[in-house]
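Schema walk-through. Below, the input block comes first and the output block second. Nothing else is stored per chain. Lengths vary across the set, and this one has 93 residues.
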Amino acid sequence: MAKTVTRTVICRKYKAEMEGLEAPPIPGPGGQDIYENISKKAWLEWQARQTMLINERHLNLLEPASRNYLKEQMALYMENKAGDDVEGFSAPE
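--- output ---
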């Protein structure tokens, strides 16, 4: 049986070598940047936070302003900078 090799990246958020994503999560240069610089753990955490932001702020992803807002929040999150609060969310230690 073939051994699975885990791909690693130096995660921008956690500043450590961690398991990477299996493929870019979104198309284009932004997805490639995430694939190369964000760990699987950080991406999964962002997805949970993004869902909370969409729900709490009643975002409509058909609107460019909502998509741009999420891109800005994601950049802040991945850089460990303060973004908008999400009720009930506590950042991992």
